[in-house]
């Protein structure tokens, strides 16, 4: 038998889609359980996200069913890339079993905006489901964004680019600033930690930063600053390859050391096509990198020395005078240096 949600159809005469009703007492108790989360934007404490996604409260909210056509995606989505193989696996699962975990949505006018569950939403579209199970929660714009960011960061299959951008955006939201402001603050906190500057004027921000990283539980603020922020400065082609899971971060950093865009693009292609190891990539980078003026001079000297020994210039009478003059100049240079 087909999954329940594949067979249900919205009323053709309904002027506005509403979640299907559940028992009034159950609905009342569910709403009471959700009251701490139903704050307006003006009074929001923004503590709704970052508490392990409030799983206990989610389980208390009985799911309703909504037509897929009334669910819209938010303007800003924290996740931009989905692994094709993992996505196809989910589609096949939904086709067999239906949507097992409700989507989290919030009412926006006569529509419902998706807060969490984008992969399930896309799988439902792929399977042409008419309706899906949802949990409806009244949330402010700030709460919805923060919830979505936090939920996304709990995933284990995030690539380093999305994770770094997600953490930056979550910090920016909590600190009421932008990404650049977050970077500036993290640099200042790092200096304060090393005793280079005072932290009297950023103690509140320091506490917020600590709370965010504690809720994520993956790295410290300093580790994020030193190891993850440089990632966003990678050339766009390498950043895209990293975002789409085509290459690992360690390999991406090595390839980015090449200044020539043409050579970098060529090595990136080979690294993906032939699954080159980090050691193989590093070897090619060293071979391709232009030598400094000092290194070039040293290479010329060593090459000239080898060639002179091989040709035995001192035995060639027509070149002996020139060689003796050059040796005299060289000896004078060595005396001056000594």
Automatic annotation (TrEMBL):
<feature type="region of interest" description="Disordered">
    <location>
        <begin position="1"/>
        <end position="53"/>
    </location>
</feature>
<dbReference type="Pfam" id="PF17762">
    <property type="entry name" value="HTH_ParB"/>
</dbReference>
<dbReference type="InterPro" id="IPR050336">
    <property type="entry name" value="Chromosome_partition/occlusion"/>
</dbReference>
<dbReference type="GO" id="GO:0003677">
    <property type="term" value="F:DNA binding"/>
</dbReference>
<protein>
    <submittedName>
        <fullName>ParB/RepB/Spo0J family partition protein</fullName>
    </submittedName>
</protein>
<comment type="similarity">
    <text>Belongs to the ParB family.</text>
</comment>
<keyword id="KW-0238">DNA-binding</keyword>
<dbReference type="InterPro" id="IPR041468">
    <property type="entry name" value="HTH_ParB/Spo0J"/>
</dbReference>
<dbReference type="InterPro" id="IPR036086">
    <property type="entry name" value="ParB/Sulfiredoxin_sf"/>
</dbReference>
<dbReference type="InterPro" id="IPR004437">
    <property type="entry name" value="ParB/RepB/Spo0J"/>
</dbReference>
<dbReference type="GO" id="GO:0007059">
    <property type="term" value="P:chromosome segregation"/>
</dbReference>
<feature type="domain" description="ParB-like N-terminal">
    <location>
        <begin position="64"/>
        <end position="153"/>
    </location>
</feature>
<dbReference type="InterPro" id="IPR003115">
    <property type="entry name" value="ParB_N"/>
</dbReference>
<dbReference type="Pfam" id="PF02195">
    <property type="entry name" value="ParB_N"/>
</dbReference>
<dbReference type="GO" id="GO:0005694">
    <property type="term" value="C:chromosome"/>
</dbReference>
């Amino acid at each position: 038998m087909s999954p329940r949600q594949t067979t249900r159809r919205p009323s053709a005469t309904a002027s506005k889609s509403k979640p299907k009703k559940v028992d009034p007492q159950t609905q009342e108790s569910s709403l009471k359980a959700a009251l701490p989360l139903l704050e307006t934007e003006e009074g929001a404490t923004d503590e709704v996200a970052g508490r392990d996604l409030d799983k206990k409260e989610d389980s208390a909210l009985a799911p309703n069913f909504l037509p897929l056509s009334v669910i819209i995606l938010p303007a800003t989505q924290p996740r931009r890339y989905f692994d094709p193989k993992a996505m196809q696996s989910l589609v096949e699962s939904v086709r067999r079993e239906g949507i097992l975990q409700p989507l989290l949505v919030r009412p926006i006018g006569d529509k419902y905006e998706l807060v969490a569950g984008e992969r399930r939403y896309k799988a439902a579209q792929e399977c042409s489901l008419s309706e899906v199970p949802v949990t409806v929660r009244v949330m402010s714009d700030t709460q919805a964004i923060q919830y979505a960011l936090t939920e996304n960061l709990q995933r284990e299959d995030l690539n380093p680019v999305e994770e770094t951008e997600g953490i930056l955006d979550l910090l920016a939201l909590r600190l009421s600033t932008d990404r650049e402001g977050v970077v500036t603050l993290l640099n200042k906190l790092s200096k304060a930690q090393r005793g280079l500057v005072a932290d009297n004027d950023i103690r509140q921000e320091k506490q917020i930063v600590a709370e965010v990283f504690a809720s994520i539980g993956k790295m410290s603020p300093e580790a994020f600053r030193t190891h993850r922020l440089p990632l966003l400065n990678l050339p766009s082609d390498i950043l895209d390859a990293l975002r789409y899971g085509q290459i690992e971060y360690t390999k991406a950093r090595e390839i980015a050391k090449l200044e020539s865009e043409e050579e970098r693009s060529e090595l990136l292609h080979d690294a993906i096509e032939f699954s080159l190891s980090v050691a193989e990539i590093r070897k090619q980078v060293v071979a391709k990198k232009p030598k400094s003026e000092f290194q070039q001079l040293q290479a010329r000297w060593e090459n000239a020395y080898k060639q002179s020994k091989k040709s035995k210039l001192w035995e060639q009478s027509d070149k002996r005078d020139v060689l003796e003059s050059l040796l005299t100049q060289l000896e004078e240079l060595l005396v001056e240096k000594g």
